[in-house]
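Exercise 7.
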Amino acid sequence: MKNVILLMAMYLGLFACGNGNAKGNKATEEQSKKDRVEVLYFHGKQRCATCMAIEKHAKEAIEMTFADELKNGTVVFKSIDISKAENEKIAEKYEVTWSSLFVSKWKDGKESYENLTEYAFANARTTPDAFKSGVIEQVRALLK
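Solution. The predicted structure, written as tokens, is:
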């Protein structure tokens, strides 16, 4: 009798865990099919002042200019810590080994992207308004 109860408990536990993952995968799958522009800021565990400025100003520019697009998923901002194991694959995909900024366009399941890292390091800390304008301009161009 104890074995039957134990087996039923294990079965229910496995079923419940598997069902939750199926729902999560479905939502992720639906998002991956949606046309969108992603602003991807990659960073490591420790960051310099310029690296922090890149994230801060890029995020501010996106949130202030594209609030409606953020809500409906047409624009996405992601801050990705490449020192974490779960982000290893995306870091490899973009060939990122240190702080980097990419703007990516997804259209009909296909991706194209621009690497704005050099631009970000040249402008985010010293001319933040120009940096924000450049990021906004790039996102607008990709939304067309």
